[in-house]
Specification:
With 360 residues, the chain is of the alpha/beta class. The chain folds into 2 domains: 62-263, ANL, N-terminal domain (Rossmann fold), CATH 3.40.50.12780; 272-359, ANL, C-terminal domain (GMP Synthetase, Chain A, domain 3, 2-Layer Sandwich), CATH 3.30.300.30. Helix content is 28%, strand content 31%. The protein contains 10 helices and 21 strands. It has helices spanning 12-23, 74-88, 103-115, 130-137, 151-163, 165-172, 186-194, 278-286, 321-325, 351-359; strands at 2-8, 28-32, 49-50, 56-59, 69-72, 93-96, 120-121, 145-149, 176-179, 199-205, 210-214, 217-218, 223-227, 230-234, 246-255, 258-264, 268-271, 274-277, 291-301, 304-313, 332-337. The strands form 5 sheets. A 7-stranded mixed β-sheet has the order 7-6-8-9-10-11-12, with helices on both faces. Strands 3-1-2-4-5 form a 5-stranded mixed β-sheet. The chain has a 4-stranded antiparallel β-sheet with strand order 13-14-15-16. Helix 1 (12-23) links the parallel strand 1 (2-8) and strand 2. The longest helix is centred in the first third of the chain and has 15 residues, at 74-88.
């Protein structure tokens, strides 16, 4: 057994030092939500000590329900970090722009320790701005520079880069910008690549110690299979107590060594006997000019479910084409235009809050 140490997400330097002890097998760590006025959030169900095989306990984002606590071993953390570095071209220096109480943020601390580099840390308790990101990027001094982002952050950086040559040069200086947490706007990813910025689309979750597939290609040591339409992952980066294979809740196809993520199985609605993927609707609408953020949600009706749309954009949308391109099930029953989407601290859309908004 070994002690379980707690540290608040806004105490990033203390967390970095504790991660050094984690990799030295001295303790395990749970990173709590940020402190409020110097007081840690109340926690339940955490022991004072854990089994030797535990290194980091993280929570899932909870975007569609109650967060789960997931136990990762040192072996899983090292497998994830080293496989990522192998794919990206080597270890380097990281810019932290995500909360460290989620796996994408805590991974940056771990990878920095392995690389023996000092991460540049943004204040993730304040709203993300592209200006702050570019300013902090100027503090990076390693030849290999990395950061992990969620799609809404990437979108803000693209807008900035189109207007500011210095910002564009700074982003071109990154060896890779990983984007994950949810499906990104593929149109924006393509625009970045045309501008000479290496954006890498990452697929993974807390149960796989973060991203395990980059740009549709599994990382070294990762095995992907499809079981009854769902993506299954095997490899050393799996969380404890999952067995040899983790069956995700994501629909996908895997052909010629490339993984196509089709969306979450629990985000497929049935209306009048017809099925439609809410994730597919979101990707289609993100390709529409003037749409910057989108969330498609299930709405319960007498006849099953219908689609509710919340979006951010500079013009009203005519969504009649969805019925033609998908099916009658894709016809929205309610559309709401907002200035910004409700989001969790992780940067992911808060689906429960959005569904509540649509229900009113």
């Amino acid at each position: 057994m070994k002690p379980l140490r707690l540290v608040a997400a806004n105490d990033t330097f203390a967390a970095l030092n504790l991660m050094i002890d984690v990799l030295a097998d001295k303790c395990a760590v749970f990173i709590t939500a940020p402190e409020t006025n110097g007081v840690m959030p109340e926690l339940q169900g955490l022991p004072d000590q854990v089994e030797d095989g535990a290194a980091l306990i993280v929570e899932s984002s909870g975007s569609t329900g109650v967060p789960k606590r997931i136990e990762l071993s040192k072996k899983a953390l090292l497998a994830s970090a080293n496989a990522s570095a192998e794919r990206l071209g080597g270890h380097g220096q990281w810019l932290l722009a995500l909360p460290i109480n989620f796996v994408a943020g805590s991974n940056i601390l771990i990878r920095s320790i392995i690389a023996e580099t000092q991460p540049v840390m943004m204040n993730t308790r304040v709203p993300f701005t592209s200006e702050a990101f570019i300013l902090h990027a100027g503090q990076l001094n390693h030849e290999r520079r990395y950061s992990s982002l969620v799609p809404v952050q990437l979108s803000k950086l693209l807008t900035h880069a189109k207007l500011d040559e210095y910002a564009l040069r700074t982003l071109r200086g990154f060896s890779a910008l990983l984007v994950g947490g949810q499906a990104p706007n593929l149109k924006e990813v393509a625009e970045f690549k045309e501008l000479g910025v290496n954006v890498v689309v990452s697929y993974g979750m807390a149960e796989t110690a973060g991203g395990c597939v980059y740009d549709q290609l599994p990382l070294q040591g990762v095995e992907i299979s499809i079981e009854k339409g769902l993506i299954a992952v095997a490899g050393d980066m799996l969380a404890n107590n999952l067995g040899d294979k983790f069956l995700t809740s994501d629909l996908g196809s895997f052909e010629a060594g490339r993984l196509e993520v089709l969306g979450r199985a629990d985000r497929v609605i049935i209306s009048g006997g017809l099925k439609v993927s809410l994730d597919s609707i979101e990707q289609r609408l993100l390709a529409e000019p003037g749409v910057t953020e989108i969330s498609a949600e299930p709405l319960n009706t007498l006849w099953g479910q219908s689609v509710g749309i919340v979006y951010v954009g500079f013009k009203e949308l005519d969504l009649s084409f969805l019925e033609t391109e998908f099916s009658k099930a894709a016809k929205p029953s309610k559309v709401v235009r907002l200035e910004s989407l409700p989001r969790l601290i992780s940067g992911k859309p808060d689906h429960l809050a959005i569904q509540s908004l649509l229900a009113n």
